Amino acid sequence: MQARTAMFARTGGPEVIEWHTVDVPAPGAGEVTLRQTAVGLNYIDTYHRGGIYPVELPSGLGLEAAGIIEAVGEGVEGLAAGDRVATFGPARGAYADVRNVAASSLFKLPDNISDEIAAAALLKGCTTEFLVERCARVQPGQAVLVHAAAGGVGLLLVQWLKAVGATVIGTVSSEAKAALARQAGADHIVFYTREDTAKRVRELTGGAGVRVVFDGVGLDTWEASLDSTGKRGLIVSYGNASAPVTGISLGVLATKGSLYNTRPTLFDYYTDPAERAAGAARLWEMIGSGKVKVTIGQTYPLEQAAQAHRDLESRATSGSTLLVP
Ligand code: NDP
């Protein structure tokens, strides 16, 4: 069987993404052959492509996809041809129409979760689940700040936090994004490209600051995050959409009010099979109950992934982005 797949042999801009036709062998032991119907675009794909997160080259690209199993390899249990499944990695190579993947990386999809919703929400929604419920452990009534609130993870975070009972302040760069974040339930919006974020957050919280900041923007928002967090509050630094935060002196956490700071990743919160199953079940429950709605902001043909990267990196996207084989 042949497949179309994206590779990059050197790091750089979106132009380094190349498309190849490759042979897909029969699935090896512990693998399945997956015919992918929807691929999820994630910011981490740009870190791999651009070199912020170094990978061995040449490399496949993309972590997240949904589709139908075509064949199962030796030793695979609990999965069969025809099953609908999704994956969020960690192996790269999701930018493809067909490929072999480790069965251990797959999540079976419930009937009420379409392939498109799965590819738009599995990685970002499982991230939201662990950030809110297991990392920051947000409690009802707490005030929280979500940067890039109209992004893929952002819109899910806002809704999940509202479902928990938090008061949500969201930052965005445009009126259109503000409307999306409000629709998702954000109580207050701050235009962080033209307002003093920390000053606004202090005004909105009666001077106290927020209990938790969710910061996936990184370098550009680090100072605002520090100044927006209340005494003994927590900054969850979970991404680098602007650039990574480096060279921080720990003492700043003392001078800003005995703050906590963590830099978590999905894979450390989704380790063993039981933890993975529980986290995904919680995500499907939040979507199934209607508490969390998945916004697919834009869809591209798979082989236009380079354009999708350009749009993501120039802040032109909102919600989740799908690449369709
Ligand atoms: P988004 O859809 O949120 O896209 C990024 C958004 O960040 C933009 O739309 C933009 O929103 C905002 N932004 C602010 N400054 C910049 C900048 N200089 N360049 C580009 N964007 C900027 O992406 P994702 O939902 O895929 O990911 C969100 C974050 O979550 C990323 O940092 C990602 O790495 C992280 N992440 C971390 C995980 C983990 O395990 N730690 C797992 C999954 C995601 P606006 O226009 O409103 O400013």
Automatic annotation (TrEMBL):
CDD domains: QOR2. Residues 12-323 form the Enoyl reductase (ER) domain. The keyword NADP applies. Keywords: NADP, Oxidoreductase. The keyword Oxidoreductase applies. It comes from the Bacteria. It holds the Pfam family ADH_zinc_N. NCBIfam families: PRK10754.1 (NF008024). This is Quinone oxidoreductase. The lineage of its organism: Bacteria, Pseudomonadati, Pseudomonadota, Alphaproteobacteria, Sphingomonadales.
